[in-house]
């Protein structure tokens, strides 16, 4: 996150080359795509709000070729940033085991315990997410109490949350590190009969399964404590600073949406509003 010359804070989202609307509001032509920027200039310049290019600190090339652009061309602003804090933060952990804090339910009805857990890298079609906000849903309480259900413990509960993609596994093309996402406990593979139907979203592969405490791909948990597996919950397990989720159980959202508020979209609002509009 950096501040432009007007004092307004700007963010990058998912890629060091990103675009933001120019000061000319409501002007569709005021966007530049990355493909419109010469490759030699990518990742090298910061385009400030007053339409003057500033070279990246590690780049020595003069800026006269950019300053010679017409005022009309320069008014279509694009912000090009390199973020060392991102590459040394989220991206630097890609492919590695992450140690973080999580609230672990060791037994039914027993208070959750804050533990240091190891979170393995995502495998094929999986995404590792840094959870920034998580809410408490009564469903979490219901399965923590484990009254009338198959008890699956130790377990990391939580499913109503918002976070940022830290890394992606093989085959994931819909998301990139930095994307803002909401977990969805009833996902979509997009290939089965239910996903292709307009009548149902009960995906054959990713429909909610409260008894499964492992990942679909290999039947293993991505959480461990001192080598002992800790089970997942409905494919999300958001009571952890980092979690691994199947890509079909993540919804990419507008990065401008405040995660501390829209996190309830992943369960509370979607289920309640869906029942009202689609059933009642």
TrEMBL record:
Biological process (GO) annotations held by this record are:
formaldehyde catabolic process
**Is-annotated flag, keyword Magnesium?**
no
Which SUPFAM superfamilies does the UniProt entry name for this protein? Answer: GroES-like
A Gene Ontology CC term for this entry?
cytosol
Top-rank taxon: Eukaryota
Q: Which residues form the Alcohol dehydrogenase-like N-terminal domain?
A: 125-253
Q: Which InterPro entries does the record associate with it? A: ADH-like_N (IPR013154), ADH_Zn_CS (IPR002328), GroES-like_sf (IPR011032)
Main location as per UniProt: cytoplasm
Q: What is a single Pfam family found in this protein's UniProt entry?
A: ADH_N
Per UniProt, subcellular location reads as: Cytoplasm
- Please list the residue ranges that the record marks as compositionally biased, kind Polar residues: 60-69
Cofactor field: Zn(2+)
Q: What keywords were assigned to this record? A: Metal-binding, NAD, Oxidoreductase, Zinc
What's its catalytic activity? Answer: a primary alcohol + NAD(+) = an aldehyde + NADH + H(+)
Region called Disordered, residue ranges: 1-26, 53-72
Instruction: State if Cell division is listed as a keyword.
Output: no
A GO molecular function held by the record: alcohol dehydrogenase (NAD+) activity
**What name appears for this protein in its UniProt entry?**
Alcohol dehydrogenase-like N-terminal domain-containing protein
Naturally occurring in which organism (per UniProt): Aegilops tauschii subsp. strangulata
